[in-house]
Amino acid sequence: MALDFMSLLGSMVSNSMTSPTQTSRMSNAGGGIQDLLGSLMGAGQTVKQKVGGDNLAAGGIGALLGALMGGSKSTTANTLGGGMMGLLGMMAFKALKNSMGGTSTQQNVQAQNYNYDTYVQPTPQQQSSDAEIILLAMIDAAKSDGQIDANEFNKIVSNLQKSGIGQEGVNYVIEKLKSPMETAKIVSAVKGRPDLAAQVYSASLMAIDVDTEAEKKYLEKLAKAMGLNSNVVRNIEQLTSANSQSYEC
To answer: Whole-prediction pTM value?
Structure first.
């Protein structure tokens, strides 16, 4: 039976919100993302014209924002994962589109045939595949300062078990937490996918509270390895910042 990476991702997001330091980062992201959603979605029904696609994981997005801001405690892991992927996709779209003033980024995006004019909702199969890479990126970010001690490890595992994702999913995360970092696999997966690279960077930022030099250097190296230039990185950091402003489409 194949692992449900959407539920695994949702469980990791839920787990992040149980940590006081990471709750702050996730809540800050919620504020910036709410501004982004308001700007992208406009007056409700115009969402299809604004960003394309039929769904955009709208239900999941609402559930995720509710959970981030403390308004929902009963969101399923799968719904939370779907919301997270929907949000990351729109954040990536906005970050890439806003960076088009930079020549190197424009050439890079055009060369990879990325559609920066219309948000394209990925297929369920693609979204599930991307969720695995996002999950690995969040785990790598958590390991980037080398400080996942026994207490933190046990807390993560306990919260995952409580999420109801099943022992197979728990075992997968345990294996990844204990394994060496998989930066090379992540970088390989995003090759030719600037949208996925931006999602990986966004998720990495949201997964941790960047308060050590090791974490800062890891994120800098990750962005460079994935081909994200300073304009894209700056846009992503604005979207996940407590000081995020209102963004225009």
So the answer is: 0.77
pLDDT of residue 190: 95
What's the half-sphere exposure (Cβ side, CA atoms, 13 Å) at 176? Answer: 24
Between CA 95 and CA 63, with CA 4 as vertex, the angle to 5 degrees is 55
Of 201, 57, 80, nearest to 193 by C-alpha is: 201
Which pLDDT tens digit goes with each residue over 50-60? 333 334 344 45
Tokens representing 71 are 């308004």
DSSP 241: S
Cα(186)–Cα(133) distance, integer angstroms: 6
CB 200 within 8 A of CB 96: no
Per-residue pLDDT reduced to its tens digit, 177-191: 899 999 999 999 999
DSSP structure class, residue 71:
S
Residues 6 or more apart whose CB falls under 8 angstroms from that of 87 comprise 33, 37, 61, 64
First to last CA, the chain: 41
Spell out the domain ranges in the chain: 5-239
For 25, how many CA atoms within 13 A lie in the half-sphere containing its CB?
19
Q: Compute how many other C-beta atoms are within 10 angstroms of the C-beta atom of residue 46.
A: 11
The CA distance from 123 to 103, in Å, is 30
For tokens 């990750």, what's the residue?
Answer: 222
pLDDT at 132 over 90: yes
Q: Give me the pLDDT at residue 206, please.
A: 83
